[in-house]
Amino acid sequence: MASLKDDIVRLKRERNAVILAHNYCLPEVQDIADHVGDSLGLSITASKADAGVIVFCGVTFMAESAKILCPGKKVIVPEPYAACPMASMCSAEQIKDAKGCHGDACVVGYVNTTASAKAEMDICCTSSNAVNVVRSMKEKEVIFVPDANLGSYVASEVPEKDMVLWNGYCPVHQSITEQNIADLKEEHPGAVVIAHPECRPEVLNIADHVGSTEKMIDFVKGSESKEFIVATEKGMKHRLEKEGPGNNYYFVDHALCSVMKMTSLQSVARALKEMDREVILDNDILERAKGPLRKMIELK
Ligand code: 13P
Ligand code: SF4
Q1: What is the pLDDT of residues 152-173, one digit of tens each?
Q2: Which ligand is nearest to the Cα of residue 42, counting in written order?
Q3: Is 256 within 8 Å of 233 (Cβ atoms)?
Q4: Residue 30: count of CB within 10 angstroms of its CB
Q5: Does the CB atom of residue 86 touch ligand 2 within 6 A?
Q6: How far apart are CA 216 and CA 207, in angstroms?
Q7: For atom 6 of ligand 2, which residue has the closest CA?
Q8: Among 200, 143, 131, which residue's Cα sits nearest to residue 169?
Q9: Largest pairwise CA distance in the chain
Q10: CB neighbours of 1 closer than 8 A, spacing ≥ 6?
Q11: Which CA distances in Å does 171 have to 127, 219, 232, 266?
């Protein structure tokens, strides 16, 4: 009897599909994907995809971004209710209000937002390029939405800008405390601490390296250390163990993103078979969100 994995390989070929998966997805989902990466890497891969169908394993804002970047392609999201909670912390209306209060400011928005919020931004960014994006803006005042932790990290790296921060956050990274890291440090005193910029400032302050999920992999590959305390979602362990084998990676036990874990082999196979979980966006929103996302990719 054909396994689910065999079904996915066959259906993928029949549909001329490419499967993209975020670094936080379940290990078995990462293993059947054609490309695994961070938000920026996956957006770039989606924008260059030559397959007719993109199956996006991750959360809905990522699949929406792929649709905005490739409007002519069918973008399938196996779990259409896998919505990042941070994306609901900033609406298009709220951005319009903020622009009204800060007339000279530009809006830089994290990709962890809805398509309608993106349509109100000047440029998007990911945790990988947020510093470069903010630095590149000609305006001195920058409204940064929605992640306050990422925003305050960027503010510390780009002091020449006046940053107007939002009050959004990622519940997973926000739940990682300084004490959690101190406890892991006590157990593994020789370990190097690497942290995602969505973490609280007090966690970032004690980290040896701060970076997006993909930058964490680059850092580990270039490091002499064999032990790492990793302040991000636990799904990263699979990718780190593949790319940096022979090392030990220690995570905060509760750092788990339930929406990232919704996508299963079953839901990928089902989506490829039925082809009914397509991302459909309002055409006007799609057109207006395209510019901010494209500018982000051009800047990298
Ligand atoms: P990156 O993969 O861009 O580091 O983002 C992490 C994240 O939380 C995505 O939702
Ligand atoms: Fe959203 Fe945080 Fe999950 Fe990323 S890890 S999808 S930011 S809730």
Answers
A1: 999 999 999 999 999 999 999 9
A2: 1
A3: yes
A4: 21
A5: yes
A6: 12
A7: 84
A8: 200
A9: 63
A10: none
A11: 16, 25, 11, 27
Cis peptide before 201 (omega within 30 of 0): no
**HSE value, Cβ hemisphere, 13 Å, CA-based, for 150:** 30
Ligand 1 near 130 CB (within 6 A): no
Tell which one of 110, 254, 260 to mutate to probe ligand 2, the residue whose CB is within 8 A of the most ligand atoms. 260
Q: What is the sign of the dihedral through the CA atoms of 91, 94, 96 and 99?
A: negative
Q: Which residues of the chain have pLDDT under 70?
A: 1, 300
The pTM of the whole model exceeds 0.90: yes
Residues 6 or more apart whose Cβ sits within 8 Å of residue 168: 86, 89, 90, 145, 146, 147, 148
Residue among 61, 112, 262 to mutate when testing ligand 2 (max atoms within 8 A of CB):
112
DSSP 191: P
Start-to-end CA distance of the chain, whole Å, equals 45
